[in-house]
Specification:
Elements (H helix, E strand, L loop, with lengths): L2 H26 L9 H5 L5 E2 L2 E2 H14 L3 H25 L5 H15 L9 H24 L71 E4 L4 H11 L11 E4 L6 H12 L5 H13 L2 H6 L1 H11 L7 H18 L7 E3 L18
Helix pairs in contact: 1-3, 1-5, 1-6, 3-4, 4-5, 7-9, 8-9, 8-11, 8-12
Length: 362
């Protein structure tokens, strides 16, 4: 095989692999490997068409390019894909003002293969490209899982004075959101029991039991509000039925300079509601999810819009900041990985991948 046909086959394999990999990341709400703005671009509103990842359309087009024998039809498919790449490059730099290495490489590959379209693709490029995409996806999942499983020290997760714990029958109880409660009195589910978390989280850590009551089995869930997988998880939580929920997770919110204002406003909005903790949390979460793209791409603007929707939140900002300050100290002392969401069971290692029902142990 001469250099030109060989280069064509390699480029087709790379293009298909990139498309399939990006489609899988979007489907699973996973971060990209490496640095750059891939996260921002891939999980923006421009990362999907008709609720399907743009990468899926690219994958189908690459497979068609490989399988269609007619040169002119192959050229039309590549022209369509090249035109789409131009549009997405303009969106990347002019609208989202970010840089995705994978997306840019895919565009360059598409244009190169269009120039080389006279060369006939080999059928073996399809399974090879898909295999490479699968390998990259498994590597991404492995890296996230490995990062999550940091060495642990044994200490219990305990509600703090800022833990506004809902009662077991929250639908019939007065709201606990507007009071600063002390930790629940010691009982068979006393958090000072020997059942310990795999991480050192302060004895006075501010886990928020807004989705169910505290028990000795309650795990912890660490979220950040500008994380695609976290927002997807929150969406799943809003769709779950909560009747007879025996226990809930301790919610921790990881803050950064980028998402601090949004996280403060979110907590303040929940605290300002005159309803049960769970209902308040789920209602504010539902409204936040209506502006998911904004939360991912411009958390500060999302914070302003959330504050406009919940004017009373301004009266609870100081309380929200105290909660987050306490949580930040607890998370720092635990030396946790940066990855979110992160599930911390009472026993065992922390996990980045977990079933939703693991948050509500029986």
């Amino acid at each position: 095989m001469s250099a030109r046909p060989a280069l064509t086959q390699l480029l087709i394999v790379a293009g298909l692999a990139l498309s399939a990999y990006l489609a899988a990341l979007k489907f699973l709400a996973l971060p990209c490997l490496g640095a750059g703005g891939c996260h921002t671009i891939l999980h923006s509103r421009y990362g999907e068409i008709f609720r399907l990842p743009v990468g899926l359309y690219g994958t189908l087009l690459w497979l068609a390019v490989i399988l269609v024998p007619d040169r002119s039809k192959r050229g039309m498919l590549l022209l369509l894909m090249s035109g789409g790449s131009v549009i997405f490059m303009l969106l990347q730099f002019a609208v989202l003002r970010s840089f995705c290495l994978y997306c840019t490489l895919h565009a360059l590959i598409t244009w190169a293969v269009l120039w080389l379209h006279a060369e006939t693709p080999r059928r073996w490029t399809a399974p090879l490209g898909l295999a490479l995409a699968t390998g990259a996806l498994l590597l991404t999942r492995h890296q996230i899982a490995t990062t999550a499983a940091t060495p642990a020290s044994s200490s219990s997760l305990q509600p703090s004075t800022f833990n506004l714990q809902p009662s077991a029958s929250s639908s019939s109880q007065p709201s606990a959101l507007n009071s600063q409660q002390s930790p629940p009195a010691a009982s068979s589910a006393d958090p000072s029991s020997s059942h310990s978390s795999p991480f050192t989280l302060h004895a006075s850590s501010s886990g928020l039991y807004w989705l169910g009551p505290f028990t000795e089995k309650s795990p912890a869930l660490i979220l950040s509000l500008d994380c695609p997988a976290c927002l997807d998880l929150l969406e799943s939580l809003t769709q779950r039925a909560y009747e007879n929920t025996p226990a809930g997770p301790a919610l921790y919110f990881k803050t950064t300079d980028a998402n601090r204002a949004l996280t403060e406003t979110f907590l303040a909005a929940v605290l300002s509601q005159d309803s049960t903790p769970r209902d308040a949390f789920l209602s504010v979460t539902t409204l936040l999810l209506t502006q998911k793209d904004l939360a991912l791409n411009s958390p500060a603007t999302a914070s302003q819009q959330l504050a406009a929707q919940f004017p009373a939140a301004s009266t609870r900002l100081i309380h929200a900041r105290r909660i987050l300050a306490d949580q930040t100290l607890a998370l720092q002392s635990a030396a946790l990985a940066e990855a979110t969401p992160l599930f911390l069971p009472r026993e065992g290692t922390p996990r980045a991948f977990f079933p939703l029902e693991a948050l509500f142990p029986r």
